[in-house]
Amino acid sequence: MTKPLEGRIALVTGGSRGIGAAITERLAADGATVAFSYARASGAAAELVEALRARGSRVQAFQADQADPISCARLVDEVVATFGPLDVLVNSAGIYKTGTIDDPERDDAVFAEQLHTNVVGVVATTRAAVLNLNDGGRIVSVGTTGAAQAPFPGIGDYVATKAALAAYTRAWSRDLGHRGITVNIVQPGAVDTDMNPADGPNGELQKSLNSLHRFANPSEVAALVAFLAGPEAGFITGTTVNIDGGLSA
Length: 249
Known about the structure:
The protein is of the alpha/beta class and 249 residues long. The chain has helices spanning 18-29, 42-54, 69-83, 108-130, 156-176, 203-209, 218-229; strands spanning 9-13, 33-38, 59-63, 86-91, 133-142, 182-188, 239-243.
């Protein structure tokens, strides 16, 4: 049986851990050749490559600093030189830093790092990718339901960066629609990752806020991304899709 992404070339940023790793694994399982980036987790990246190649997948890891636009552009160049023009771009790389607006000891460098990683780097990667993206391609970004609601104090900078991605998604869908390229964003709620473990200090509170009273598994988010990256999602674009267990109901 032909797999839905057979013959497609995909790039997943931040694809070595958490949601990004689950996306890398799912796209590879669906038949795509997958390039993924990592910033510092070289060990995790190597383990993922080894595991997926053992299953017969074509996959390769590339080191890149998501906060550096030059590094983002170089990443795309290296992937295209290795595998050819892209069919799918998944913007998954991001960091999560907290701090209230009235904290006198907040570090401006932390704010700048989050802004550059979560917004500037995504824009730089996407700009480079669209010059090497086949017509009819797919762009999917990973955001957060916090872009529409801020349920906890101290997350303003983080959710603002993700709200920017939602706005870019709508705008880019207009820019690229004439080429048949779709642009969408998925917005997870609580997902069980090392960045936000279900058994962490806020786990029970986060469970209580959604209708299903649990965390999502990263594979559930990956399944949604894979659908949006696939052939059956060709008329879905400029759209924000929440995957939050009913948090935003």
